[in-house]
Amino acid sequence: MDLVFEEFYRSIPKGGEEVCGDNVEIIKKNKKTIVVLSDGLGSGIKANILSTLTSKIASGLLEKELPLKEILSTILATLPVCEVRGIAYATLAFLIIDQKHQLRLIEIDSPSAFLFRNNQVQKLNYREFELEGKKIREANFKFQRSDQLFLVSDGVTHAGIGGLLNFGLGWDGVAKEIERTVRRNQADLKYNINKLVKVFNTFYGDQAGDDFTIIGMKYRKKRKVNIWSGPPLKAEDDSLLAEKISEAEGKKIICGGTTAQIAARELNKKLEVGLKYYDKDIPPTSQMEGFDLLTEGLLTLNRVLSLLKKYKPGQIPAAGKDGASRFTRLLLESDSVRFLVGRAVNESHQSLNLPINLGIRSQIISQIAEQLRRIKKKVEIEWF
Amino acid sequence: MNEIIICVGSSCHLKGSEKIIEIFKEEIKKNQLKDVKISGSFCQGNCTEGVNIEINDQKIAAVTEENARKIFKRHLLADQNE
Predict the structure, then answer these.
(1) What is the tens place of the pLDDT at every residue in A215-231?
(2) Which chain B residues are within 8 Å of A298, Cβ to Cβ?
């Protein structure tokens, strides 16, 4: 069974701040996943810059696969240290997991990780040592199929401090919340992260007293999605494409009104065109048995492209109900994406006075493919 | 039973099908029309003349925000015009 390591996070800025002082970087390379979390001292833009700097340096060096000791010394020597107080401006936690599921976690001044295993949350076994005058915790273990690991910034362990609770939730309190949430729904990490953020926000009385971040990680089965967009140049390929998409493995999307009509005709299925606008710029979606999503063509593709351009690995995709948001979610939730692209051109799009440039389908799809490859999705395109 | 079909393909969308749908829904309500089915369709093959609609199998092209109410009246409120 093909597995993939998935990770989701959310960062919430301190109440009243525009940006979060925590930063997360996720890199996937050579079948390894690197996750870095940094929490800048203080809050607001200064903390944001410090944590971004720290996590970018860390992830950059980790990506180059330097020996761990060397990476650590370099990071610690580079970390901006406050001259007056003599402490590092930003905390740092990072982990590397390889294709043999071996995980190595390093924590510097950040709360200990939470491992959900056999239905309960436990603390990892750490080895502690000093390097460059810093106390460092290191854990090495084999990540099991049903394990889930959570990293948090101290804004989470402090949730409720001085308000609802005297000293905040603390590690044990957070462990209890994670345990309760994950037990109820082990499969949906995204949902659990959103749920936990709600819980921590509640402890803060919906006004976070500090920036806080939670990252969740686990293995899941690989997912595939297939997209047919555009009528083929040769009309005799209509039936071939319809057959290909209907027999494909995984989720299925048809993008384009005319394409959907061809599919309905060739597969002898009923096409129900929707009328409901969730977003006035994105035409409604339709329904056909056997397909997960049917959208309009070029306007939707253009929106999908702009949503993908803004996406950072590990983020939880936007929740919109319109065709483009749903399309984007299906792409982001999949690991391999296969496009069947017809290159016939709609004459009317070329001819007249349309208020915006609709662009050429093949170009937009190539750009979407490029964005998907940037976030390490496997992409195949077949042209017709 | 009256049936209205409005094209929501890319081209007609850009020419304002969303607005047309809104106007038609509004008129149906205002005139307390019963037994009307309003639905969308994909490209009716006449993009250059959009927005394209069909009322009771009769194709009507070039529907705009301005003439939508008139078209509605002409095709669906015939009894009242007599």
Answers:
(1) 999 999 999 999 999 99
(2) 10
Full residue range of the structural domain in which residue A180 is found: 3-221
**8 Å CB contact of B47 and A346:** yes
- pLDDT higher than threshold 90 for residue A57: no
What pLDDT does A41 receive?
Answer: 81
For residue A356, the chain B residue with the least C-alpha distance is: B14
Q: How confident is the model at residue B82 (pLDDT cuts 50, 70, 90)?
A: very low
Domain residue ranges of chain B, discontinuous segments joined by +: 2-64
Q: How far apart are CA B6 and CA A13, in angstroms?
A: 45
Q: Which CATH architecture has domain B2-64?
A: 3-Layer(aba) Sandwich (3.40)
Asked if A209 and A242 sit in the same domain, the reply is no
Last residue of some domain: A168, A187, A221? A221
Residues of A in contact with B18 (CB under 8 A): 277, 280, 283
Q: What is the ipTM of this complex?
A: 0.70
What's the gap in Å between the CA of B19 and the closest CA on chain A? Answer: 9
Q: Where are the alpha helices (DSSP H) in chain A?
A: 44-63, 68-78, 154-157, 170-184, 189-203, 238-247, 257-267, 298-309, 323-332, 347-351, 361-374
Nearest chain B Cα distance for residue A359, angstroms: 12
- List, for residues B11-33, the tens digit of each pLDDT value: 888 888 999 999 999 999 998 88
Rg (CA), chain B: 12
Interaxial angle between packed helices A44-63 and A68-78, expressed in degrees from 0 to 180 and rounded to the nearest 10: 150
Confirm or reject contact between A322 and chain B (CB < 8 A).
Answer: no
Q: How much of chain A exceeds pLDDT 90, in percent?
A: 65
Choosing from A168, A189, A221, the residue where a domain stops is A221
pLDDT, tens digit, for every residue of A155-177?
Answer: 999 998 766 676 788 899 999 99
* Residue among A224, A221, A227, A201 at smallest CA distance from A212: A201
Q: Where are the alpha helices (DSSP H) in A82-169?
A: 154-157
In this complex, the residue of A258, A347, A358 whose CB is nearest that of residue B42 is A258
Q: Does A277 sit within 8 Å of B18, measured CB to CB?
A: yes
Q: Considering only the beta carbons, identify the residue of B10, B18, B41 that sits closest to A280.
A: B18
